[in-house]
Amino acid sequence: MRCTLTIALLLALAAPALADPSPPPVRVVIESPRSGERVENKVDQAPIRGSAVASGERPAEFDVMVVIDVSGSTDEPSGVDVDGNGVVGVDPRLELMPPGSYPEDLRNTDPGDSILQAEAAAARALIKGLDPKRVRVGLVTFAGEVDPTTGERRSLDQQDAWLEVPLTSDFAQVREAIDAIVARGAHGATNFAAGIRAAVTELAGLPGSHSRPRPHAKPVMLFLTDGVPSFPIGRGDRTDPGDIEAAISAAKLAKEAGIVINTYALGPEALSYPQAVTEMARVSLGTYTPVQSPGNIIALLQGVSFANIEDVVVTNLTTGDFSTDVRLNPDGSFVGFVPVREGRNQVRVTALASDGTRGSATVELEFGKAALSDRELALQLEQIRRVNKELTLLRERKRIDEFRSKEKKELELQVEKPKGGPSN
Description:
The protein contains 9 helices and 15 strands. By secondary structure, the protein is α/β, with parallel strands linked by helices. It is globular and about 75 Å long.
């Protein structure tokens, strides 16, 4: 009776898909374990790996350009212990410190905790979770050289943005470039338009680019800044309407090239939704994320999704266990753990897309107890739980919580014994 009920419910859930020959709105691929494969571990947890992508026949390829603000203000404290030395840097001018404790021009008591350091740490964390077989990453920085006499640009044709790394699958090269950016330090004013145009040149393969676009790859720009544009118009210590207009015009150019811009504003003013960064995201069909505490960009950038997938959950249809110990990477790839029992287990992976649609895939595995636990797997599970906890604290989870609750209720219906009926 229980098996009959489960099969009936599964068929009912699958009916719309059977009636519609079009591809599912969310495609989930379970890469490991393979169907029928035996999994062994000392603890009753099985690792599940795969990928999910919204509105596609297969996991997509992505070309991602990370655009980092290196202007002078990124020297200021991020609010977190980025360098892990046990001390959080602060601005002495904003603290109750005895006069003479620090030099008058010092803005950060621990340079290792600066906004620039947080941006760099976020970029490192981002590429750590990407698959170089599917994703290429490039790096652009922007600022703006200031004439000390006039406060304006040194020259009309000066370069305010720099290509640090063309699009590449060699992530070691990107990490080296990030280290070099940090070593050079922060400087100058802030030219949003220059940074966007430099990234568009590479992502679209415009004349002068050092990158070769891939026709089937989705181009994405991640734009990180702690301020508002102050160049190319007027003085470098204030925003002119022309600075905002130039940034939005550059974002429109990105839209014409099919490039999505996701913007991240770092600092207390982020919640005021500054016009430039919000409009840059809107006109390019991207997203705007305010990061009131700049140090939180490290966790938030790991939670970005290029594949338009917001969450992945794993359920064991055999035991009724439900797991959210899943690490979802920006490219839609995931690794998670699900409670299992010895013997056969049927596992379902369900992914939620940004538009509310979802898709699932199932796999059967054989689980057996191992003599020794896999330390690497244990550490991976611990890291997944830590990252998910950070993201839960930082992001609005209402939609994801509703999704997980719905999955859990459906699972309970599928494994529930009918009252008064026999058990198979």
